[in-house]
Amino acid sequence: MMINVNIESSWKEILSEDFKSEYFSNLREKYYFAVKNTITLPPPKLLFNAFNLLPFWEVKVVILGQDPYHNIENNTPQANGLAFSVSKGVTPPPSLKNIFKELNRDLGMPIPNNGDLSSWEKEGVLLLNTILSVEFKKPLSHKSFGWETFTDNIIKNLSLKREKIIFMLWGNYARSKKYLIDTNKHFVLEAPHPSPLAKGFIGCGHFSKTNNILKEIGLKEINWQL
What we know:
36% helix; alpha/beta
């Protein structure tokens, strides 16, 4: 029996075996226990935001993150269900500020006045955290839930059932997922993590490289301007 999951229909179909599985049933129990007993981020209604904004068959680019931002600012959760993105009204964290600096350096775009990246999703960019939830002020607290099995299967499905997707892997953790991607069918761009604690992200040129690839394969370029 499929577990009722509020997720966009193409993803629901692609991931139907996951939703029927024992591991997902266990994950769901752990998640609902966390929601009931702790402050869990992002808000439950935004848990599958990345998928609800972008159907499976419309993904052109994947940017991989790890787990959601774990703080709340002015009563607004930082996390909004999209990797690296924050809700409107929340100060962009350091990694996101560096992403904006690289956008400015690479494409000459002005630094945005907010950190909500949902418009990128509507352009075809899947902002995928590999762990989809976290407890308030406790980074990686939901690492044991089983989310990585779920999101590894998402990457595998994209690799198997789609062609010519551009995967942007920033930092060692994201790069560790490269083995899930068929590099004969897809494009992989690798760079250091955008965190100020790492060095080398500024200058990677991934935004222009992505648009150049899309142009070469006859697809519409991403409008990265927020």
